Predict the structure of Exocyst complex component 3.
Amino acid sequence: MKETDREAVATAVQRVAGMLQRPDQLDKVEQYRRREARKKASVEARLKAAIQSQLDGVRTGLSQLHNALNDVKDIQQSLADVSKDWRQSINTIESLKDVKDAVVRHSQLAAAVENLKNIFSVPEIVRETQDLIEHGELLQAHRKLMDLECSRDGLMYEQYRMDSGNTRDMALIHSYFGSTQGLSDELAKQLWMVLQRSLVTVRRDPTLLVSVVRIIEREEKIDRRTLDRKRQTGFVPPGRPKNWKEKMFTILDRTVTTRIEGTQADTRESDRMWLVRHLEIIRKYVLDDLTVAKNLLAQCFPPHYEIFRSLLRTYHQALSARMQDLAAEDLEANEIVSLLTWVLNTYTSAEMMGNAELAPEVDVALLEPLLSADVVSALLDTYMSTLTSNIIAWLRKALETDRKDWMKETEPEADQDGYYQTTLPAIVFQMFEQNLQVAAQISEDLKTKVLVLCLQQMNSFLSRYKEEAQLYRDEHLRDRQHPHCYVQYMVAIVNNCQTFKESIVSLKRKYLKHEAEEGVSLSQPSMDGVLDAIAKEGCSSLLEEVFLDLEQHLNELMTKKWLLGSNAVDIICVTVEDYFNDFAKIKKPYRKRMIAEAHRRAVQEYLRAVMQKRISFRGAEERKDGAERMVREAEQLRFLFRKLASGFGEEMDSYCDTIVAVAEVIKLTDPSLLYLEVSTLVSKYPDIRDDHIGALLAMRGDASRDMKQTIIETLEQGPAQASPDYVPIFKDIVVPSLNVAKLLK
């Protein structure tokens, strides 16, 4: 208490200190005192009221406890009186045993009298029930069956109550009503038959189906009552519970499974399209069945059966099991595609589960996959493996067929622009297109994988194509009379390279969403390089053919016959132009490069003739005639190649300037300026070597040995540097094995 008093005083001091912080507040002391007095009086009144309330409660509780104690004493006295009366009446109860037995017998006799009519009419009811079942009047048959079972179960229950251990009487009753179980089984068979054909019955005779459902509902109610009585008495009639509702769903499940499995009418041996037909029949049947179940069947069953949801689940499980079985078979590539397309796309599409007729009860987003991810992955791996083998075989066969076409006596076909081509690119990319279209039906991921596979195999195929083109050229060089249309088919091979490039780009643009997808873009440069190499070799082979025919006329250049008036260059120009009329069937990107290469090669062969030391001019007049002839022939070649390149909008005549530059060296009349002229020539063409200069000076025929030596040694001291875009022309020209020392003599 002292501690409490001290805390109260401390609190009061704190409050007073808070009130009297300013001098002007001293005037209000009396006001503060009256306010605190009012608060104290209010608190004391509340405390008194609370204490009074508590005292009233205690008083009431004590009164109730006193009353309860009196009641307990009264009950105790009453129980003692009852116990005394019970002990005194034991003898009286034992004397009433005979009365008890009489009551039991009376109860049994009453039950027998009550069922007497039914007992005597059992055989007749059995016959009537059998007739009703045979005539399909199932509802009436079930009513009579219920009467029979009720009579049997009532008698057996009374016998069970009287003497549950008397099995002889129980067996006698069961035997007398023995036909009842047979009728129940026969009726059940009829019910199951109707349920097996429920989707047909609901269209033709829905009343029959409703009767079946009503019978099952009755039996369910009887089963429930039986189980309740079992919990109370322990008695269970024979054949109970029947569980017909559970059996009904089992029958429906089995019917659905049988219907799904029974749709396979063909095998691979009898029909290559067996799986497609099988899956299409399944699709049609399932869609029709579920539509009927939603619109008609659901109306024949109680709502709590949720018959449509149950059938939907059953069909899904049956389809999943069937797809698992099909996936486990040894399927071919096209069959795997058909199965996966159906499972991954068709099943959830508007053609089946996504059909508007099934909405909104069927939500495809909630359907479980028909095949697990592992099974789908295994099927895709098998498909890719098989497809790889097939593509390799198809490409090999296509190349073999194309190789045979190269040997034909007739020219290859031309496209709409007149360019020669073979059927190889069309066959290859038609095959790729078909496989990509099929893969796209399954998934975007598979489509990309198939595209990668096609491009990878294309890479390998182009290597074989290149080898075959080389073999084709080598065989022709061994006997230039065969094949008859070598040039035309080599042109077609070159054109095929451009077609392949365009087709690859088109294929990727069509089937790739992103260029960087799966690293596919990386395959393009390598294939372009191989195709350009094949085309370059093809063009080189064609030019080789040209220059083999020109060899005789090229050998006439820079000879006495040429100096006296040979028409070798005229023939060369006519021959080249004639060949390029055939080469007009080459597509522009390659024809342009081919014209440039032919131009370079023609000039190079001309310069090679200069370096062969076939002629040595004997005087200034002869050098002048030879140089002027070289300039005229350079202009002839320039005109020819300008004409050939006219469709490309570019000038390609710089090579002929080399002939003119060499002619200037030969034409020079003042030997003292020879060093300057040769220096100019070397600065223009940095790849010219000292043996080329020696051969050129030897051809002039007027340069002294010392002059030759000085010119060559001086030029060797400061070789010219080639510009980055310079195309070498002297580099491949070989001077005959005559050393420089001999040339200088």
About this structure: Confidence is low (pLDDT under 50) at residues 739-745. Residues 29-94 form the longest helix (66 residues).
